[in-house]
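TICKET #2291
ISSUE: user wants both folds in one file
ATTACHMENT 1:
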Amino acid sequence: MRKVGAFLGGLVLLLALGLLVFIFLHSPQYKGEIEINGLSEETTAYFDEYGIPHIYASDASDAYRALGYLHAQDRLFQLEMMRRVGTGTLAEFLGPDVVEIDQFFRTLGIPKHAQTSTEFWNSQPDSPWKTATEAYMSGVNEFIQNGTLPVEYLLLGEKPREFTINDIHGIIGYMSFTFGMALKTDPLITKMTRELGEEYLEALSIETLPEHHFIPNFYPDSEPNGNLSSLLEKLPVPLLEGSNGWVVSGSKTKSGKVIFANDTHIGFSSPSVWYEAHIEYPGFSFYGNHLAGVPFGLVGHSRHHSVGLTMFENDDQDFFEIKLNPNNSNEYQFGDEFLPFSVRKDIISVKGQDQVEIEIKETIHGPIVNSVVPEIASLTDNPVSSWWVYTMEPTRALESIYQINHAQDLEDMEAAASLIHAPGLNIMYGDSLGNIAWWAAGKLPIRSEKVHSKIFADGSDPESMPQGWYPFSLNPRSINPPSGFVASANNQPDTLQNGVLFPGYYFPGERWKRIADAINSKDDWTIQEMKAIQLEVVNTDHAQIAKIMLSQIPDFDFEGKERVKSLLENWDGNHELSSSIPTIYYKWLYHVLRLAMEDELGKEAFESYLGSFVMIRSNLPFIRNFNHPWWDNVNTSEKENASQIFSESLKITLQELEAQFGGNINSWDWEKAVILEHPHPLGSQKPLDKIFNVKTDPVPANDESVNKLAFKLNGEGIYKVTSGPAMRILLDFMDADRSLSVLPTGQSGNRFSKHYRDQASLYTKGKYRYQLMDKNEIVERAKESLIMTPR
């Protein structure tokens, strides 16, 4: 028996040792020495306590080559997933379950556009951004060739191919797609228009309402130069969804220097989206947040300037309903003539199965998308073409971002912003000289007066086609405004300089209003005090909605639950985890909208509405208008009203919450209803979810508070937070070497790295860490250093 016990003990020891060796071999290397092909001089990366590399190199080529290598060793599988989505090759890697995703993106034209952009890139002369990009790709490929691949490849039985410039253009194309809302919105608005009529639309905020909050412009006298949603849920990479950004001049700060703040709102994932890196070489120093596969920081700062992003939310995609030639289905009407469809074949390679051939038809407007957008297929039998600004010309995003990183002044920044044709971005800027600025970047099409930008247009009418572009000089902007700050929160910018109010998918502006009110409240801000703005979870519009609904049901029987009425009447819109009010309110709001709208829209369209910006923008005007037709249930003979809906939905809400959490209303804490889990691409398969997904403590989930931690309304009463700030950055130019930030999970995407989730607790608790730039402090505090030498 002793021999058996000794044998089992030895076996367990061997297994434990084997596991430790496996983990060691598959962990990123943060110390020691490695040889890298192509380096000209020794390059050193110092890693801080959270695994952020501070790269010191002799020139740009060595710096970006080292960045590529380090980015790959921490995030190679994320790079893989991003490029696979953007190039339409997911099925080749993951198998038949994702063929429809490849078909969707190929039909939309992202892989085709990537090839066009690559051809344009290759035709251009040598430039600093080309040299840096090629060095970065070389570093990524060095790791692919000689590094230890992350465990995901072992589990899938795959090996990565080398990284190319076409992969980067595919990633940029995917990013551009995630910024757009037309595909998620326009089919729904068109359906409402056709099936219900104008009276129903008037109850919603299809366009920005006067009561919503606009981003103000300031032009100085002398300027410097079963549905689509279910398909997208299968994506192994997150969607970019919104953001906050503000820059405050020295006239309103305690230090007398500019303070910069940015938090981009992106779908939660493991790893999180941004990869931080600080690069130094003679003449250049920049601390950047990098998207997977992109060598330059989309967000970041030097000691001289800072740059941040929010989504412009401009409408840059239109849909055209096509009329076929009744005598020839291979032709469509355009004006007085019939034109042939252009047809291209595409081959999708599928892991473990035969290739899939797809046929993509196009008109002069763009590709026909009925086959890949179920909402469009169910709406009309006619072909519908997608016209999208992004596919109209090759992207120059890499050039633009490089120039942004290297900008020396306002003029450089504006010139770089003008290179962005799509997606629409709000670029936030501040510098050490005291300048602050905001530009709405992107090419804005001139639409015909015949076209409603959110309703399918008549593709047979040549006058419905876009008629050119507004020059960038007319785009909304604000440069050193008298207010002393610039801010954007995905809300409507004021008019172009020519007086045009450009349409979009803008949010109502509660976040912007809270930010603006706070900044205006005092003139001695510090970055420590700015934390309170970034972390605020108050939305006063929801408190107002709750009071309106209560006021319409004065005779409601609260017997035994009088506490509910008191809580809702006195709610200030705070979403504290210890409060039971959000638990009651969001379930009540869901049932109000369900009872009001599902009978007209049907279940699937109603679910689409819950996931749209229209719902967020319409909630308050929808609830306070007691006379619109949505209140009546079209399936009954009697005419229902708002009061009945409010009453019935509250009754359902209280019954369900009692069954869910018990009879004690004080125990219906919001934290019991909130779940936050950062999903990994392999985490949808059990038990891999336990290994790769990062589950955290609850966070104060909310709808349109500044610290937006978003979820989808549902009847279950459990709310999965799916997106939120993908980082939180605060910088005071009084001390640019010690700005603040935090990531939702960790710096590394390698499961065996100690930095896989080491910021998750900081994030959920509303804490920050330093972004260091002073070399002496970096070296002194560095936990590890890695010396890279020429091979």
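ATTACHMENT 2:
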Amino acid sequence: MRTIEAIPLTAALPRHGGKAEGLAALLAAGLPVPPGVVFDAAPRAAAPSIASAAVAIARVHAWDTVAVRSSAEGEDGAVSSGAGAYETVLSVPAGDVDAMTAAVDTVLGSIGESGAVIVQQMVMADAAGVTFTVDPLTGAPAVVVNAVAGLGAALVAGATTPWVQRFDRGDEGAVSTDTLDLDGAPLDATPLREVIRLSLLAEQARGGPQDVEWAVEDGAVWLVQSRPVTALAEQIPVEIVVPPGYWVRDPTHGRLPRTRMTSSVVDEGAAVGPLNLEWGLLATFAGARIGGWHYLTIVPVGAPPPAPGKAPPTLPGWLVSTLVRTSREGRARLRVARHAMRSDAASRLLAEWEDHLRDDLRTGILASQDVDLGGLDDDALAAELRARAETMRRSIQLHFRVAMPYGLGIFHLVEFCRARLGWAPEQTLDMLSGLAAVASDPGRALAAIAAMPPDSPDRADAYERFLRYYGCRALDIEVGEPTLAESPHLLNALLAAAAEAGSVDGDIARADARREVADRARTQLSGSPGGRSRLAEFDRLLAGAERVYGLRDDNVFLTADAPLALVRYAALEAGRRLAARETLDAPDDVFHLTAEEAAAALGSKHPLDDVRAQARRARGERAWAIAHPGPISYGEDPGPAPRFTWLTRAERTPTEAEMLMGELIMPGITALSEGDDGVLRGVPASPGHVTGPVRVVHAEADFHRIEPGDIVVCPGTRPSWSVIFPMIGGLVADAGGALSHPAIIAREYGVPAVVAAVGATGTLRDGEIVTIDGSAGTVHRRTERRAGED
């Protein structure tokens, strides 16, 4: 029978596995590691003997509770960390032999008969986290701190979203911590500085970039693990192939290059095909990945293909119409457009959406959330992932189809007011502000929860309902990013800020403002020739626009954000299993596979080196693309979109409606204009004046930094960002138009906003005081800063 021997952690040997070896190295360097012992791995039948020895040692050292941890051969090694593949049992009562035996048995079952079992004094953490001594995505010299309140198990398992802070490293590798932004941080400045210092010492002790787990108890920092950053993405250059024509980078549909998983389930180019065929569109958007980034162009039907390196000529309307009519595809599109308009296809599709499509989607989303993914076997999980991927592909097609009733409803009203009143689109949209309730519902729900007593059962119930109905949504068009439900740290920060901000409900004021604008239109129309008939037409078109105004954000949530979140949940479960069997380096690497590749890999019970290599390459290519963003545009700007004025109204209306939506959602990108007077100019998005401090928010992970009254400056927003609007004072976005998501949500809350202020995120600084004029589209800069800002 094998002798059970407890070896001091300081004397751990290579045979005891990578984790024990790493902890021994930290102890040898004089770094604070919780005391513990190591037992050689053994058959699971030896669990009671190991447990008895561990209890005896714990009594000698007066340990109340312990952590029982794996240290398998190859775990925390230089090639693969094995993260998630082995077991750890926390908070084991040190004097309870049965509990200790169960914990040891669990760990032995995960490591086999090579490696070791570690028993350490438990650190009852007030805060815990993981520090990378190099940017784990790009390899850039930086220290990235991830922290949560309490124990760090949920963070390491990927079950919660941490507070994150990044610190650039200087030429000598040092980090400056003189100024710290602790908004939303679960630990104070002193332990945070100590975490950074100890992490850098761990890197020095182990001879390379480290992934350091730590815990803080009563202000003392303990290192509980240190392993090489094995999943570091080596940047792999991507060949840049620019198709002929004029291409503009799309900042509104994903802030970073997409992962392969996302691209496999969200393909706008394929999704718009049914839209073109159903409505006979004569010019439509097409997308391309250039250097890993998403770019857009406009493709007119019947136009000659663009010549490489040359801008297409600007054609007069009569010639554009002639080219369409002489093109076989063009004539087919014209027939479809005439039929769609004469049969009122938009009203039929809208009625179908309101009658059952919307409810069917909601029912399916809730049903999918109830599936126990962890309880499925591999074949069932693979089938579930394939089914969710296919649902996402069908949903994105429906997304574009349902966009047409919305676009036509807005188009008819905007065109009427432009022709009969001389109004710009922004003036017309003032009659609709506050009617897209679906855009503001999540933010209002969060504000309502914040107003409830902290410990009340009603608050807990409301929070659970919020997570169920609003939590299952992607925060970006990227399956690799956590959903709202996976981000309790963000939600807690938003609840705290919403409680401080108080109620911002202005429905009555917005209704009065809408009525005032509509009455102004009616007064102007009543004094014109044919006033009675024009008033009737105006009221009909206004009613139609009011009916569809909330459709866009409802559509985005149900056909894009929620289905993408469901794909993520299934893919992440697949990633955990593939990492456990060493087919992938880490669970998140699953997002660098397509949905089909991940499902197929689940069918093998053995590691697949080709799958691992494929994921590593895709991860490296994305890391290179992130580090090398392309220019705003490629090619020569051809000028305004083609006009179709020589076609019949029925033939051209679907295309003109789509072109207007493009203009109002994502206008042409130009350089940011800042005059000598310190005024930045963009596009008016939501009326009103407000003065306040700037808070630059690049992504959802920055939400915890927002304070009530801040002027949020961001690249753009999505519907999921509505949760921050109850507490902000104003909004400035690099991208967007009068019907972009930031504009719609800002109008819902009565928040002054300026969009298409390209470059604002790189020009404005945190704490800088600015004044927004949402009606003029200007941002006035001042010199003073909020107290305490750097």
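RESOLUTION: both attachments delivered.
EXTRA DETAIL ON ATTACHMENT 2: The mean pLDDT is 84.
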